[in-house]
UniProtKB/TrEMBL annotation, chain A:
Residues annotated as signal peptide: 1-17
Signal in keyword set: yes
PANTHER family: ADAPTIN, ALPHA/GAMMA/EPSILON
GO biological process, one term: vesicle-mediated transport
Cellular localization per UniProt: Cytoplasmic vesicle membrane; Endomembrane system; Golgi apparatus
Species of origin: Oreochromis niloticus (Nile tilapia)
Segments forming domain GAE: 609-696
Pfam families noted in UniProt: Adaptin_N, Alpha_adaptinC2
Protein name: AP-1 complex subunit gamma
PROSITE patterns the UniProt entry points to: GAE (PS50180)
InterPro entries: Adaptor_Complx_Large_Subunit (IPR050840), AP1_complex_gsu (IPR017107), ARM-like (IPR011989), ARM-type_fold (IPR016024), Clathrin/coatomer_adapt-like_N (IPR002553), Clathrin_a/b/g-adaptin_app_Ig (IPR008152), Clathrin_app_Ig-like_sf (IPR013041), GAE_dom (IPR008153)
Keywords: Cytoplasmic vesicle, Golgi apparatus, Membrane, Protein transport, Signal, Transport
Bilayer topology term: Peripheral membrane protein
Family the entry assigns: Belongs to the adaptor complexes large subunit family.
TrEMBL record, chain B:
GO cellular component: AP-1 adaptor complex; clathrin-coated pit
AP complex mu/sigma subunit domain sequence ranges: 38-178
Listed GO biological process terms: intracellular protein transport
Topology with respect to the bilayer: Peripheral membrane protein
Subunit description: Adaptor protein complex 1 (AP-1) is a heterotetramer composed of two large adaptins (gamma-type subunit AP1G1 and beta-type subunit AP1B1), a medium adaptin (mu-type subunit AP1M1 or AP1M2) and a small adaptin (sigma-type subunit AP1S1 or AP1S2 or AP1S3). Binds to MUC1.
Primary localisation category: membrane
Keywords attached to this entry: Coated pit, Cytoplasmic vesicle, Golgi apparatus, Membrane, Protein transport, Transport
Protein name: AP-1 complex subunit sigma-2
Length: 696, 191
């Protein structure tokens, strides 16, 4: 405990009082009382205690209580001749006033005056405040003052003026012109603070204006010289940090060099040797050295450096990856990510270490490692990388699952060494992270399976087994149901080349589908898949068609309207059509594939993938047939042909059609509305269907 | 007087912030056409989430500052001890380090060097330590204005203004001497 002759102790009793409040309510009470006292004091004439009052208010403000009534007091205090009052006044201005407040303009004049004060500490207050919260208007007003200070003052003020100029340029880009000359000359000064400020200012000027950048390229040799001085110089106690001489300045110079060397051969050449020197000689055992090395690497990789230097830089990053310090590993990966496109091979060399970082405890590091790993997947390493990625998927943090799954799918699609591997990989992902995959995964997988005809048997076996063990992962269940519906007969055959066949009966297969139908875990869309699959099986099995009929008819009274409609339609089909195989025939490479799952629209005039003429109505001598012709990916033309085989003409004949809301229907005019007797002529009507969303 | 492009840019939406809030107010976390290199703010807070110092180098309303502070404090306090000192938060990079019971937290931009920011934090802690003599959280609570003065002598507009520890401390010392004495002064323990 120290005893301090501190003139600011006068607000400490208040702080003590606030801290000793035991509840939020009590604290509020204390604050209210104190604020009332402060307000009263503000209204009083100058009593010498103003700075302490304002300090109290600032403390209260930091606790989160409103303090706007102190704004004018700040303005008054700033104008005071007393240093203590100015000091707290400016502090208050920085805390309570921002450029959005009108009151901030009121201090412009005070700042202007204080900038020319003979006392540098008063000048300092003004500079600090302007640089912290100066509005564009204030900046424009005071820019000439700042420029004056940049040219003619002591180092203490010059370094602050430089940073103030930075703020001004950030606020009002055009004012950059004003400071260019002064900035240039500041580079020649000896004082580190001034040079640092100059470097920051030049950096800002160059980034705002390309012409200025061109002009400042000439300073590269000077900057190189300054850096050399820092790197080679002996121990300089004032600026040394763990053996590195003024690392802050070094980092800023390196960054400026980066901007100047970018896209410019000449400038890049001029700094090449220096960068190599810094990269090689900087001590990397402490963070501070690594900070400088990091900036060096960023510069080397961004300018037009020699290939040798580039390799050196990437190797430094490689060393960083092996560093015990997690922070260093993290920034190494961030940098490698930036160059994985341009220096792919160089980064590949460190793939092993990067993949190891997938197992890091820290989620940020994991995320970086994931991004990099996905970028490093190639045809030659796909198998080993996929093992790592799949292993990562099973244990990664939930927020990364979706990205990992997508990344795996992309990689698999680009580099799959075999189709079986591809299918296996997708199935693996669906089993591990089924809930995090995107919607199009299901139709994409169905497409893939369909196109891999030699593996139908293998695939249906795998999916059947998957269903037996777990029916909670919806995308997997959906694909499995679809597959069983399509290729269920292959299951029943009891033989398979690629994998151990199952010995199942038709009942077993139907059991599985029924389990899905009845499970509370199944989404309605999943149930739709299961029901459709059950229907399809009616053409692929021989003995249990009755069971299928009964399943389907049960769902005819299902609460879910979609399912109910589906079931009712299927029931109708059951009753009317013997040649069901036409409707459910095995799908070949059809572009309609992705909508196959929506094939069985709950409407008699469904969109079929089959281009055939089907009789859809036959009663009392009137026959209506339907034929489809695919027009596009989402468009279909249906032609209805009606004929009358009775003895008498039928007049006033109209056809009506119903489709789900998401399908657009356009019925063209029929060729007529009367059906002549004995099939003398037919009435045709075209219906154009558009299924843009390809939804059920 | 015409409003500069810069002023107009102040009212630009920052998409990340817009998404995360309830969308009921405009978040201004960037000045138009940022170069991507600036410290936007520094926060000091305790393990209980109590704010001990806040220095903002970008213009934001009180409401916005409170929201950012609340969210960031929560995020940082949720981190486990061995985790990285860097995290991505909205469109900023956050660099933080814990010293005893205080978290020092800086928000920097895309182009900034995280490792040197750690050094800046460390330098500030060293300055506080030298000034108060083995600084602890209570020093910063009861002498918060001093903590600000020291910070303002080290950083200006979010950038380091003086890279020599000695020079910063000397300047503070000199400035302190300018403080006008009161007629009655107290020889009391600090706390």
């Amino acid at each position: 405990m120290t005893v301090t002759l501190c003139l600011f102790v006068l607000h400490q009793p208040m702080i003590r009082a606030i801290r000793s409040a035991r509840t939020q309510c009590e604290e509020r009470g204390v604050i209210q009382r104190e604020c009332a006292a402060i307000r009263a004091q503000f209204r009083q004439a100058d009593n010498g205690g103003r700075s302490h009052n304002l300090a109290k208010l600032l403390y209260v403000h930091m606790l989160g209580y409103p303090a706007h009534f102190g704004q004018m007091e700040c303005v008054r205090m700033i104008a005071s001749p007393r240093y203590s009052e100015k000091r707290v006044g400016y502090l208050g201005a920085m805390m309570l006033l921002d450029e959005k407040q009108d009151a901030s303009l009121l201090i412009t004049n005070s700042i202007k005056n204080d900038l020319s004060n003979s006392n540098q500490y008063i000048q300092s207050l003004a500079l600090c405040t302007l640089a912290c919260m100066g509005s564009a208007e204030m900046c424009r007003d005071l820019a000439p003052e700042i420029d004056r200070l940049l040219r003619a003052s002591n180092s203490y003020i010059k370094k602050k003026a430089a940073l103030c100029a930075v703020h001004i340029v950030r606020k009002v880009h055009d004012l950059g012109e004003l400071f260019t000359k002064a900035a240039r000359s500041l580079l020649t000064e000896k004082n580190h603070g001034v040079v640092h400020g100059a470097v920051v200012l030049i950096t800002e000027l160059c980034e705002r204006n390309s012409e200025t950048l061109e002009r400042f390229r000439k300073t590269v040799p000077d900057l190189v010289q300054i850096m050399k001085g820092l790197v080679i110089s002996g121990y300089s106690p004032d600026h040394d940090v763990a053996g590195i001489s003024d690392p802050f300045l070094q980092v800023r110079i390196l960054r400026l060099l980066r901007i100047l060397g970018r896209n410019n051969e000449g400038a890049s050449d001029a700094m090449n040797d220096l960068l190599a020197q810094v990269a090689t000689n900087t001590d990397s055992t402490k963070t501070v050295g690594n900070a400088v090395l990091y900036e060096t690497v960023l510069t080397v990789l961004d300018i037009k450096s020699e290939s040798g230097l580039r390799v050196l830089a990437v190797n430094i990053l490689g060393r960083f990856l092996l560093n015990n310090d997690r922070n260093i590993r993290y920034i190494a990966m961030t940098s490698l990510q930036k160059i994985v496109g341009t220096d792919h091979n160089a980064v590949q060399r460190h793939r092993g270490t990067i993949v190891d970082c997938l197992k890091d405890q820290d989620a940020s590091v994991k995320r970086r490692a994931l991004d990099l790993s996905l970028a490093l997947v190639s045809a030659s390493n796909i198998r080993s990388m996929m093992k790592e990625l799949l292993s990562f998927l099973s244990s990664c943090p939930p927020e990364l699952r979706s990205q990992t799954a997508s990344g795996i799918f992309n990689a698999a699609e680009r580099y799959a060494p075999s189709q079986r591997w591809h299918i296996d990989t997708i199935l693996h992902v669906l089993t591990t992270a089924g809930g995090d995959v995107r919607d199009e995964t299901v139709p994409n997988l169905i497409q893939l399976i369909t196109n891999t005809s030699e593996l139908h048997c293998y695939t249906v076996h795998k999916l059947y087994r998957a269903l037996l063990s777990d029916i909670s992962q919806q995308p997997l269940v959906q694909v499995a149901c679809w597959c069983i519906g399509e290729y269920g007969d292959l299951l029943l055959r009891g033989e398979c080349q690629e994998t151990e066949p199952v010995q199942v009966t038709e009942d077993d297969v139907l059991d599985v589908l029924e389990t899905v139908l009845q499970s509370h875990m199944s989404f309605p869309s999943t149930r739709g898949f299961a029901l459709t699959a059950t229907m399809k099986l009616s053409t692929r099995i021989t003995e249990n068609v009755d069971r299928i009929r009964s399943i389907v008819s049960i769902y005819g009274s299902c609460i879910d309207v979609e399912l109910q409609q589906r079931a009712v339609e299927y029931n109708a089909l059951f009753k009317k059509y013997d040649h069901m195989s036409l409707l459910f025939k095995r799908l070949m490479h059809s572009p309609w594939l992705n909508t196959d799952l929506k094939l069985m629209q709950p409407s008699t005039l469904s969109v079929f993938s089959v281009v055939a003429t089907v009789t859809v109505y036959e009663k009392d001598g009137v026959t209506v047939t339907l034929s489809c012709e695919k027009q596009s990916d989402s468009g279909l033309t249906v032609t209805l042909t009606a004929s009358n085989s009775t003895e008498s003409d039928i007049r006033g004949f109209t056809l009506q059609a119903a489709v789900p809301k998401s399908v657009q229907l356009h019925m063209k005019a029929p060729s007529g509305d009367s059906l002549p007797a004995r099939g003398a002529a037919k009435v045709t009507q075209m219906v154009v269907l558009n299924n843009p969303n390809k939804v059920a | 007087m015409s409003i500069s492009e810069t002023d107009r840019g102040l009212h630009r939406w920052s998409p990340h912030l817009a998404c995360s809030s309830a969308g009921d107010f405009e978040m201004v976390a960037a000045v138009a056409a940022r170069s991507g290199e600036q410290m936007q703010f520094m926060l000091l807070f305790s393990r209980q989430g109590k704010l001990r110092l806040q220095k903002w180098y970008v213009p934001l309303s009180d409401k916005e500052k409170k929201k950012i502070t609340r969210e960031l404090v929560q995020t940082v306090l949720a981190r486990k001890p061995k985790m990285c000192s860097f995290l991505e938060w909205r469109d900023l990079k956050i660099v933080y380090k814990r010293y005893a019971s205080l978290y020092f937290c800086c928000a920097i931009e895309d182009q900034d060097n995280e490792l040197i920011t750690l050094e800046i934090i460390h330098r500030y802690v060293e300055l506080l330590d030298k000034y108060f003599g083995s600084v602890c959280e209570l020093d910063i609570i009861f002498n918060f204005e001093k903590a600000y003065f020291i910070l303002d002598e080290f950083l200006l507009g979010g950038e380091a203004q003086e890279t020599s520890k000695k020079n910063v401390l000397k300047a503070i010392e000199q400035a302190d001497l300018l403080q006008e004495p009161r007629h009655e002064y107290f020889n009391v323990p600090v706390y």
